[in-house]
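Lab notebook, design round three. We kept the backbone fixed and only want residue identities now. Task for the bench partner: fill in a sequence for the structure below.
Input structure tokens:
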């Protein structure tokens, strides 16, 4: 079977201020990197329903984000998180693509999927947009898989260099979800201590020291994370795929290389092959060096394609 890639031009209409790392060019670089890959099943990211967003956020948050969109220019929700005309539609397509990707993978239309949308989602908490994120895209995908497809074991692996505080908050009391975050510590947002374990021992936080490399990352995943996934026996694996642990990234100090993302993707696909017919939905989070981001995403998607069954 094929690997689906979800994208929409509307995700280029969420415009951040000049010099902001979470910029339109990120998706343009990714689109170019995937341009020549003919075997991909390219799909338009659909918009989402209000009900999709309400799987994880209260109506007041949806209303506040909708009302905050400016008619022109840009507004700051906090020091990092901005909205422009078009931001709400971009954010709704990021959610909608995640929901659609889960439907396509669980429905057997495609082997696995990569969601190339923005804004990212893993820092958005129930009522708080944060860290470039408006809605919790991947947490919503997990809830969608559980509430509407009846899954009882969904694993989420967040290898973005920053702690996935939003996904953690949204799935804190969700025993059907197992959430892993590996992240540099110390680093913004400062959360993600190993003693944050969720309401059901379902949250696993794994800090990595600044300047550590793929060697430390591989040891950590082999020792701690893969065995826990094996024990859980997931029916679906979701990946919060941030590529800002790359050595060239300007926002953090880990020293992963493209081959480290390849290795990690391969191992996660092996786990999915073992437990859930290869069902993986991977979603773009961070990654701010444009060249490293494009190369890492292209390599990540190639591994997904090799494993689409
Ligand atoms: Zn990040």
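Proposed sequence:
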């Amino acid at each position: 079977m094929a690997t689906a890639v979800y994208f929409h031009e509307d995700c280029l209409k969420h415009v951040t201020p000049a010099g902001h790392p979470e910029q339109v060019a990120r998706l343009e670089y990714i689109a170019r990197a995937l341009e020549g890959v003919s075997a991909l099943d390219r799909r338009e990211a659909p918009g989402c329903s209000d009900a999709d967003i309400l799987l994880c956020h209260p109506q007041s948050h949806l209303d506040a984000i909708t009302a905050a969109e400016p008619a022109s220019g840009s507004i700051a929700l906090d020091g990092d998180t901005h909205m422009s005309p078009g931001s709400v539609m971009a954010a709704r397509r990021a959610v909608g693509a995640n929901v659609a990707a889960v439907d396509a993978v669980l429905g057997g239309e495609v082997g696995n999927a990569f969601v190339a949308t923005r804004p990212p989602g893993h820092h958005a908490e129930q009522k708080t947009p944060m860290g470039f994120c408006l809605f919790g895209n991947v947490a919503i995908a997990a809830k969608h898989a559980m509430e509407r497809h009846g899954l009882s074991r969904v694993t989420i692996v967040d290898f973005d260099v920053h702690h996935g505080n939003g996904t953690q908050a949204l799935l804190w009391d969700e025993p059907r979800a197992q959430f892993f975050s590996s992240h540099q510590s110390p680093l913004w947002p400062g959360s993600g201590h190993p003693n944050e374990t969720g309401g059901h021992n379902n949250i696993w936080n794994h800090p990595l020291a600044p300047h550590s490399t793929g060697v430390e990352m591989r040891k950590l995943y082999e020792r701690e994370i893969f065995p826990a996934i094996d024990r859980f026996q997931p029916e679906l694996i979701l990946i919060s795929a941030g590529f800002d642990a790359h050595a060239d990234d300007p926002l953090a100090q880990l020293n992963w290389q493209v081959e480290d993302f390849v290795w990690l993707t391969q191992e996660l696909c092996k786990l999915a092959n073992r437990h859930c017919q290869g069902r993986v939905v991977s979603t773009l989070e961070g990654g701010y060096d444009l060249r490293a981001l494009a190369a890492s995403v292209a390599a990540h998607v190639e591994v997904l394609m090799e494993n689409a069954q």
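Keep this in mind before ordering anything: The chain has a mean pLDDT of 98.
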